[in-house]
Amino acid sequence: MLSASELRAHLMTVGLAGPVATQREGSLRRYRMFAARDPRTLIGLEPELDWTFTELLELMSARCGVSNDPGYVSGQDVIDPDRTVTALDAFADRLGSAARSRTPVLLGTGHPGRLLGFYAALASALSAAGCPVLTPGRGCRIDIGTRFGLRTYNLDYIRGVALVREPGARSAENETGVHTHSPLPLRIALGAAADAGGSLPGLVIGDHGWLCGAGQLGIAAIGLADSDDPAPFVGEAEGRVSVVVPLDDAVRPDYYRPLTRYVLNRACLSQ
């Protein structure tokens, strides 16, 4: 089993924590957008409190370890690897609890090119433990607003993980879908499950709109978030998101494999 110290070293070596590729100026811009309640940064969350920029900076410092100095305005963000390991422990504990109770789970990602393998391994382990891994709404059309205007995508699943694809894309793992922060795919999936009279998830595992959208609807949610995405951490602080793991969410897919092994081992779900 990978130890916590070995995991910490891996996080630092590959840039998942420590100095990360996420740029400070981009993070500060998104904190200001969130404080102004720009929906592009709310990603499905409706904050209960009126978070100011200063309060968000302090929160992100406490949850991620980024600098709380407003005078530090450029360069790389720094994520505290100890906070990442602590959050991964909590993530694994929640995963293990879901497995023991055979909770229906829904997994989804807005970063399929990077994080699909991480979530797919969790889906496989949870299914083997007896959890229903839900895949409602496959093929449903979703119209999502982007910086290029309204775009139409289709909801799909690969190895039990939800994502969105361009219309006409083949359902093959080497075409992993598009990057999105939107909560609409989650809402479409839940609506399809309700319309079909099927099971609804007791736990959502994901990122971006999957994580925040579920928390907003009162569904237990755990997932990953980068230091330039304040919404998941606000959701956690307000008690609507159960666990958020701070890390760079856009490194090479194979860099997440040690995290997968660590989480599954701690959750007693190794296959």
Record the SSE blueprint.
Layout: H1 4-14, E1 18-23, H2 24-35, H3 39-42, H4 53-64, E2 76-79, H5 81-100, E3 105-108, H6 112-128, E4 141-146, E5 149-158, E6 161-165, H7 184-195, E7 203-207, H8 208-216, E8 221-225, H9 230-237, E9 243-246, H10 257-266
Parallel strand pairs: 3-6, 3-7, 7-8, 8-9
Antiparallel strand pairs: 1-2, 4-5, 5-6
Helix pairs in contact: 1-5, 4-9, 5-10, 6-10, 7-8
Termini Cα gap: 13 Å
Strand content: 15-25%
- Major sheet summary line: 7 strands, mixed
Side-by-side strand order of the widest sheet: 4-5-6-3-7-8-9
Quote the average pLDDT: 95
How large is the radius of gyration? 17 Å
Task: List the total number of helices.
Answer: 10
Low-confidence segments: none
Assembly of the depicted chains: single chain
Q: What string gives the helices and strands in order?
A: HEHHHEHEHEEEHEHEHEH
Helicity, as a percent range: 40-55%
Structure summary:
With 271 residues, the chain is an alpha/beta fold. It has helices at 4-14, 24-35, 39-42, 53-64, 81-100, 112-128, 184-195, 208-216, 230-237, 257-266, and strands at residues 18-23, 76-79, 105-108, 141-146, 149-158, 161-165, 203-207, 221-225, 243-246.
